[in-house]
Amino acid sequence: MASGNARIGKPAPDFKATAVVDGAFKEVKLSDYKGKYVVLFFYPLDFTFVCPTEIIAFSNRAEDFRKLGCEVLGVSVDSQFTHLAWINTPRKEGGLGSLNIPLLADVTRRLSEDYGVLKTDEGIAYSLSRWLEAWQ
Q: Where is each Thioredoxin domain found (predicted)?
């Protein structure tokens, strides 16, 4: 696993990534969430059966998190196009269906590396949740 640049007690490394938000592509930066808490969770790949239950659960509770001043962001090494295809696939067919949280594309794997969750031998992220306070 990559050691990463994220450190406990230090500001979280800022990032910029293309995300699928409400069915459209949007650039998302950690600094967009300044003053809020952020749950930044990583999962290995789209169209697998490893994490869809957790992703859907985060999506279903997104409004509860927002009421606490917290945003939820999901990240994998897949492209935004793959994320959109997975979201557009019905749940009964192995897709996610509509989501209330952004899914960020980390095709360069830099975000996964910066946060120390990259499985360098496989080029995918470990499935971890990271709580971050978004501030600079």
A: 6-136
